[in-house]
Specification:
- This protein has 71 residues and is mostly helical.
- The longest helix is centred in the C-terminal third of the chain and has 19 residues.
- The chain is globular, with a radius of gyration of 12 Å.
- The mean pLDDT is 92.
Length: 71
């Protein structure tokens, strides 16, 4: 899954997960995402595609685990 394919809500969840579980760098990227306009938001997502993808997968894993859903 590529982060560019995620909608805004999904990217926002990924950014929240980056702040929660990521290191300093991931947290700074998340905070930059929150304040970016649409052009710069797209640049961030393209530049850090793997980071947003990874943390969105972690968000989904945590959400699925905590609600007891199965795939």
């Amino acid at each position: 899954m590529s982060a560019i394919d995620l909608d805004y809500k999904m990217l926002h969840k990924a950014a929240q997960q980056m702040e929660k579980e990521g290191g300093s760098f991931a947290g700074h990227i998340a905070r930059a995402f929150y304040v970016a306009d649409s052009t710069n938001m797209e640049k961030l997502v393209r530049a850090f595609d793997s980071l947003f993808s990874e943390y969105y997968r972690k968000y989904r894993r945590d959400t699925t685990f905590s609600t007891g859903e199965s795939k």
